Structures are given as structure tokens and as C-alpha cells.
Amino acid sequence: MNWRPLRNWGARVHDTALSGAPAVVLENERLRITVLLDGAHVVECNDKRRDLDLVWLTPDALRRPVAGGTVNGLAAFHDTYPGGWQEILPNGGAPSAYGGAEFGQHDEVAGLPWAAEVVRDDPDEVAVRLTVHTRRTPLRVSKVLRLRSGEATLRVEETLTNLAPVATHAMWGQHFAYGRPFLQPESRIRVPDGLRVVPHPGPVNPPRRAVAPGGPHEWPTVPTPGGGSLDLSRIPAPGAPSDVVYLTGLTEGWYELGRPDGATVRVEWDVAVLPYLWLWHEFGDTTGYPWWGRAYVVGIEPFSSYPTSGLSGAVANGSALELAPHEEKALWWTIGVVG
User: Fold this and answer.
1) N or C end of the chain: smaller count of CB under 10 Å?
2) 4: in domain
3) What is the pLDDT of residues 190-205, one digit of tens each?
4) Within-domain flag for 5
5) What is the tally of structural domains in the chain?
6) Which CATH number is 60's domain given?
7) What is the pLDDT of residues 123-176, one digit of tens each?
8) Is the pLDDT of residue 64 over 90?
9) 284 within domain boundaries
10) What is the arrangement of strands in the sheet containing 328-337, beginning at the earlier edge strand?
């Protein structure tokens, strides 16, 4: 990346490119945030005091779409997924169908180009508005990313709009994925008290599950398929079984993921809009597609709905977000370093 000269104090914003993909950078004394505009993927959140990046990137990150690519609903996402953090809307998880529209994995906004507009650029604060319109559903998302001088927190305010004169459903989530160098064995997850763990109701990839079916179970200690127990709040060493589960019962929207040395990321959000927390573990146990044993990552993801089986499943179980004709829904969330 070729950085243009910048003032060395306060907050600043500028555009750049990564592997030919347009991007925008928000930066202050504490954090550097890089966002790819194709998909609005946050591919860098660097704690500048430690020179420590919080986000996880895939082994083959920053791959742009190519002509003649696959139409497979799962592969279409993974072919260009860089890792990092992204919006998921309106289909969360597996390929699905709704209202006559067919969706692939985590379709659609993570695979669309977003428009960017700088709305503030001064030493006290920088802010960028990102906007996208879905193509198979009548939805628009507009969000303002804000970074204030001296703060180690990215603040985001969003508006989701139904542009149609009829009601529609959606799954809306924030797909936060953490990996090396930030993520380490014995890192700990902290969440509000009293949460319940709902195992994924079906097969996962790979088939070696970390959590026994059934439940719900009390957080954080859950039964394993072999009759033992597992503390989900502790990040294991590479090679541990992988899984995805859902945390329910949230009355406060926050969590922390902290390393043994004290470096900690804290996420806060409007739990009235995103009442579930998805917990995705992939610690190298998938030795075939798509990770081939190369992923060491945990996703801790606030969501409107569950499970990760697509929009049709969320509509069927009543957890899908419903938007009335021309309705707007607001959402706020923050992510920052506290340790």
C-alpha cells in the first residue's frame, strides 16, 4: 500500500487501493481502519500502540471477482471473501430462497460495491458514509463510520430502508472475525450473565462438532459429543473441533475478547435490533474446502436472526427481521480496544 503524506496529529481520512480494489482509510492516534469499498469489508483495525491488527484475513485475502467465476452459492462467497468484518444482509448463512429470489452464502451486500462519501474530515473527527442498494430485494443500507481524535473506538450508525410498498423480511448481522496475530490460545470471551447456548440444528463443516446437539445449554460450559464438557469462553489451541452456536437471552449488547497479555477488543450494539450472538469457531479442523487446515479464527457476530441456514429458515422460525412498507430501521454499534 502506498500511503500519501498525512498530518501526524488528530484524525484523518483518505482513499487508497489494495490489490487494485478501492478502499478508504480512517485513522487517528490510536486506530487505523481500512475498508474495501467492494463489499464494505473492514480488512484492517490496527491498534497503533501495539501495532496489532485485530481482524482475521483469509489465507488468500483480497481477491477481486473474475469473469466466468462460479455460480455455486457457497463458492461465490468464498471466492472473494477476504475475512475481516462485514455487513450481512439479507441472507445470513447458507444459500436460500425468499420471495422468488435465490441467495448465495451471506448474500447480498458483502458482495456488492458500496458508494463512499466523506462527511467530516478535520483533526477532531473523521466520518465516511457508505451506501449500498441490494439487487434481489428492495433494501438500502446507509452507514456512517466515525473516528474521533484520541479514541480507540470506531463508532457506526446505520439506517436500513425498505424501498418497496410491501413488507419484506431480512437477516441483518455484523460478521466480526478475529484471528492472528491478535487471536491467541487462552484468549477469553466475556459476555453478559445468563446467556444460553443453542447448538446449530444440523450438520456443520467439518462434521467433528465441538458442542453436543440438543440444549439450550448454559453459557459457557457445554457438553461435547463425546460426553465431556467444553468452556466456550476459552479459545483453544489449533486443531480443536470447529462449530457454530448461537447465544440467546441478551438484555445488554456487548462482548469482549481479550488476550492473556491484556489486549482486548470490546463490541457494543443495539440489542433491540440484533438480539442474537453467533459464535463461529474454526481452528484448523476443516482440512478440505474452503479452509484446507489454514484457518485459525473465531467469529463473534451480533445478528437479528438465527440460525446460519439462510433467510427462509429465519422466516420459518420467526426470528427474521420484518420491515413494513417503506420502513426504516436504525442501528448503532461500536468496536474498540480497551486493554
Assistant:
1) N
2) no
3) 999 999 999 998 777 6
4) no
5) 1
6) 2.70.98.10
7) 999 999 999 999 999 999 999 999 999 999 999 999 999 999 999 999 999 999
8) no
9) yes
10) 115-122, 125-133, 139-148, 153-162, 328-337, 264-269, 254-258, 188-190
